[in-house]
Amino acid sequence: MEGLRLTEYAGGGGCACKLPPGELDGLVGGLAEGPARPAAELLLGLAGGGDDAAVVALDGERALVTTADFFTPVVNDPYDWGRIAAANALSDVYAMGGTPWAAVNLLAWPRDLLPMEVAAEVLRGGRDVAHEAACHVSGGHSVTGPEPLYGMSVVGVVDRARMMRLDAARPGMPLTLTKPLGTGVLNARHKSTGEVFEQAVASMTALNRDASGAAVAAGIRAGTDVTGFGLLGHAYKLARASGVTVTLDAGAVPYLPGAREAVRDGFVSGGTRRNLEWVAPHTDFAGVPEEARLLLADAQTSGGLLLAGEIPGHPVVGEVTAAGPTAVVVRG
């Protein structure tokens, strides 16, 4: 597998290949929440503002969290891609304050173009990260496809009284970000040049488990993970669901080494530009330059958590305020 450029087999890369957020809003906006006579109570779904996972009541204290996530190769190394995709899928459960229990693989493979041995490395990477999370991996589903896709469907459990959600942010709460931004622009550079950014791989393969646990212990009940819609997009979704304004301090947001240089050199994905176009009508940028706007909208893969609250060891990047003229305000 030496010299393999896995990203060359994909039109997009990681969470940057998501459908544009505005189009996605229109696509799911008219869907019904469930059957006329559901077998269990749906605690969170489409009506909650687009939370990271669906949550269904198990009993008076616990609820089931279910999610699925998959994408095209974001790096050239198949084992690392598997690890990143698994961490990204598991993150949806952590974003709700839950614990992943079991996962199944989702795989599409161009078997006439890429050896099955490469697919085996992808699955091995996913398994290893799931096992790191103490989550079972059992089987899954695979199809032949024109480009490689990999991810997981994950089921977990959450304490109903301690669940995190999009619509629970209130004025006066600080905003914490648990991973630096920049994976999108660094992945775009990696796809174009083959240059490996170990700091980006380390960030994308890191589980959000500890940050989630710290948030739940601190009593935080509002949050989301930062993935394909960028920090701005996910901040907007949080503000919209909670009926508040989210104010971000651009100077307090951490970035991976090399991220700013990647933007200046033009390694910006179409997904990032679509994110910025989507949030711009709902954002007061107060003179913040284009480079900073693109970084704040950068389509992240397996990003950190954006929390309405504060936990030790992670930067506060803004605050929740009462609803104003725009859903998001960015201070320089």
TrEMBL record:
<feature type="binding site">
    <location>
        <begin position="140"/>
        <end position="142"/>
    </location>
    <ligand>
        <name>ATP</name>
    </ligand>
</feature>
<dbReference type="InterPro" id="IPR010918">
    <property type="entry name" value="PurM-like_C_dom"/>
</dbReference>
<dbReference type="Pfam" id="PF02769">
    <property type="entry name" value="AIRS_C"/>
</dbReference>
<feature type="binding site">
    <location>
        <position position="92"/>
    </location>
    <ligand>
        <name>Mg(2+)</name>
    </ligand>
</feature>
<comment type="subunit">
    <text>Homodimer.</text>
</comment>
<dbReference type="InterPro" id="IPR016188">
    <property type="entry name" value="PurM-like_N"/>
</dbReference>
<feature type="site" description="Important for catalytic activity">
    <location>
        <position position="18"/>
    </location>
</feature>
<dbReference type="InterPro" id="IPR023061">
    <property type="entry name" value="SelD_I"/>
</dbReference>
<dbReference type="Pfam" id="PF00586">
    <property type="entry name" value="AIRS"/>
</dbReference>
<feature type="active site">
    <location>
        <position position="15"/>
    </location>
</feature>
<dbReference type="InterPro" id="IPR036676">
    <property type="entry name" value="PurM-like_C_sf"/>
</dbReference>
<comment type="similarity">
    <text>Belongs to the selenophosphate synthase 1 family. Class I subfamily.</text>
</comment>
<feature type="domain" description="PurM-like C-terminal">
    <location>
        <begin position="170"/>
        <end position="255"/>
    </location>
</feature>
<keyword id="KW-0479">Metal-binding</keyword>
<keyword id="KW-0067">ATP-binding</keyword>
<dbReference type="GO" id="GO:0004756">
    <property type="term" value="F:selenide, water dikinase activity"/>
</dbReference>
<feature type="domain" description="PurM-like N-terminal">
    <location>
        <begin position="50"/>
        <end position="158"/>
    </location>
</feature>
<keyword id="KW-0460">Magnesium</keyword>
<comment type="function">
    <text>Synthesizes selenophosphate from selenide and ATP.</text>
</comment>
<feature type="binding site" description="in other chain">
    <location>
        <position position="92"/>
    </location>
    <ligand>
        <name>ATP</name>
    </ligand>
</feature>
<keyword id="KW-0808">Transferase</keyword>
<feature type="binding site" description="in other chain">
    <location>
        <position position="18"/>
    </location>
    <ligand>
        <name>ATP</name>
    </ligand>
</feature>
<keyword id="KW-0711">Selenium</keyword>
<feature type="binding site">
    <location>
        <position position="52"/>
    </location>
    <ligand>
        <name>Mg(2+)</name>
    </ligand>
</feature>
<keyword id="KW-0547">Nucleotide-binding</keyword>
<protein>
    <recommendedName>
        <fullName>Selenide, water dikinase</fullName>
        <ecNumber>2.7.9.3</ecNumber>
    </recommendedName>
</protein>
<dbReference type="InterPro" id="IPR004536">
    <property type="entry name" value="SPS/SelD"/>
</dbReference>
<feature type="binding site">
    <location>
        <position position="225"/>
    </location>
    <ligand>
        <name>Mg(2+)</name>
    </ligand>
</feature>
<dbReference type="InterPro" id="IPR036921">
    <property type="entry name" value="PurM-like_N_sf"/>
</dbReference>
<keyword id="KW-0418">Kinase</keyword>
<feature type="binding site" description="in other chain">
    <location>
        <position position="69"/>
    </location>
    <ligand>
        <name>ATP</name>
    </ligand>
</feature>
<feature type="binding site" description="in other chain">
    <location>
        <begin position="49"/>
        <end position="51"/>
    </location>
    <ligand>
        <name>ATP</name>
    </ligand>
</feature>
